[in-house]
């Protein structure tokens, strides 16, 4: 393919053809994001069938999110260099084959290894989806297209546990991975036929940046998750400190690199891009963390099977689906501070109410009503965040911006899954000494009323973490500035807004 600086193929701009390409990409994107949370509801089953601890099973998710997050910065650039479509198809192939491997494993160690490979496939795919959408849609249609992409992420995060419950209960935990095989094949055929091959760009790859960011993230995630298990030994503390130091070194290197840094810091001169990266990392954290306490409570305290436990997520999923289009339509007309401020506030309230009612005698309808609130809030977060993040980025930074945006979401997910593992382990050790190490408390229903009450309290305190992180997101989105793109209802067109009114 001839290298050029063109931004899109003429036959796709302004017509209907970009939309079939979008939906082909969304199928694969949906699948890899479902796998971030699909394991959550199968936690008790995996504990029992694989003779594993709670922390071991959380590593089944953490290994995926870590392998997903570490390379995603460089894979965005690789798509710019070798072709986003080629990279997407290669990543989809790796992901599909690794899914088959996951289902065929019989030990938790082998499952973790297969999940690492699966995460690598996902990391190759994800930035290509966002970069392709940015390049094939004209500016006036890009907001709606990115809204579909962002809404897909939100829906996938809550559909994962539901699908995981149905498959685990009906066919066995292996099928939460086997189901990816036919979907992956269909997704490959659709992408091959419908997604355009776009012009490529020459890049100088920042391999030092890749090494610094990857090692830093691994040290931080491993140290945080294993800290409680290892009684916060000196070597654990040293890992965390080293991770922080390497992350600082990474940022300094990105500033000093005058050729082509892995993360062009100029991206963050756009305040809305910067705020969006904070907001999406918060959502990654929450999506990777809140399901574990809820699913363990439903199965260990209430005695639900995986399917019925997962159905607790259905109200949240339905609201995310029903509101995706109307909220997407708002992204071109309303200030993102209003949309996302409402979203984070209502989600935080809903999560706090769930935490309050997560008791052995709680009425299930109450939990479902509060899940509706969280679902409404999430619908006002996912799509607008994705649309706002990339709207003002120059086309030549599409790959870099996509990589950074997706990397920050995955960093949030890595830290979220590690943090919730530590917190649940600590809470179980406090309320039910001995349960945290063996995982027995989460493997079957707890018959003793006093133990059930104590287990519920442990899960309640654990759920306070995602509620608190929603509050962090709420504060962050208050810093959004007024969008400047053409067609925004509140933006002046004749002259720039005065500095005092820019927000």
TrEMBL record:
Membrane-topology annotation of the record: Multi-pass membrane protein
Domain named Major facilitator superfamily (MFS) profile: residues: 21-485
Residue ranges crossing the lipid bilayer per the database entry: 21-45, 57-75, 87-106, 112-133, 145-163, 175-195, 207-226, 232-253, 273-295, 307-326, 338-356, 362-383, 404-424, 463-480
Swiss-Prot/TrEMBL keywords: Cell membrane, Membrane, Transmembrane, Transmembrane helix, Transport
SUPFAM superfamilies linked to this entry: MFS general substrate transporter
NCBIfam families per the UniProt record, alphabetical: efflux_EmrB
Name under which the protein is recorded: DHA2 family efflux MFS transporter permease subunit
Species of provenance: Nocardioides mangrovi
Native organism taxonomy: Bacteria, Bacillati, Actinomycetota, Actinomycetes, Propionibacteriales
